[in-house]
Amino acid sequence: MTQLTVVGLVAGIVGAVLLPSLASAHERKEIAGLVVVFGAEPEPALTGEIEHLRWRFQPTDSDEPFEDLEDATVVITRDGTEYGPFDARRARRDPGLLQTRHIFTVPGEYEAVLTFKKKGSSEVHSITFAYRIRDRRDIEIP
Questions:
Q1: What is the count of structural domains for the chain?
Q2: 86-121 residue pLDDT tens
Q3: Which residue has the higher pLDDT, 63 or 140?
Q4: Which of 34, 87, 22 is nearest to 58 (CA)?
Q5: Within 13 A of 22's CA, how many CA atoms are on the CB side?
Q6: In which domain, by residue range, is 14 found?
Q7: Burial label, 141 (beta-carbon count in 10 A; 0-12, 13-18, 19+)
Q8: What's the sign of the alpha-carbon dihedral 116, 118, 89, 54?
Q9: What is the pLDDT, as a whole number, of residue 11?
Q10: Where are the beta strands (DSSP E) in 60-107?
Q11: ω into 42 cis (within 30 of 0)
Q12: Which of 32, 34, 51 is nearest to 42 (CA)?
């Protein structure tokens, strides 16, 4: 087998493993007049890696980022166990983006519940997103 064939074979295997998780990596929901896009970066989300859970906000009637948020916290749930709350922080140089940073050690299905207020309002909003953490060993090549 030539080196080029081996590289192509490896790329195909890795692509087959990664593409299903990339296709559903970002989810979009609406709440309180805002569009919220959720995702984990880098993708795919793997055990043992630093993962940023990110929420991008914009008004439903505009493409501009929405930054007037406060008291944003996140609770992460896996198999009925809650972790957190974690403070969601604004991303530097990226308006409208909140994020948390984690290292997941167990693969599986997770939920992240983001709770926040719009500036000047006492109303608390919560939005839930489901995501999957894959086992890094599933894509490692010996």
A1: 1
A2: 999 998 889 999 999 999 999 999 999 999 999 999
A3: 63
A4: 34
A5: 8
A6: 3-138
A7: exposed
A8: positive
A9: 40
A10: 69-78, 81-87, 89-90, 97-103
A11: yes
A12: 51
- Pair of tokens at residue 31: 């709440």
**Would you state the torsion angle of the CA atoms of residues 80, 85, 86, 90, taken in this order, to the nearest 10 degrees?**
110
Tokens of 109: 């299905």
CATH of the domain at 67: 2.60.40.1930
Q: How many CB atoms within 10 Å of residue 78?
A: 15
Alpha carbon 70 to chain centroid, angstroms: 19
Is pTM beyond 0.85? Reply is no
Q: Cβ(132)–Cβ(21) under 8 Å?
A: yes
pLDDT tens for 14-60 read: 343 433 333 345 899 999 999 999 999 999 999 999 999 999 999 99
Cβ(120)–Cβ(110) under 8 Å? no
* Residues 62, 37, 56, 44, CA torsion sign: negative
For the purposes of burial, counting CB atoms within 10 Å of the CB of 133, is it exposed (0-12), middle (13-18) or buried (19 or more)? Answer: buried
Q: How far apart are CA 57 and CA 126, in angstroms?
A: 13
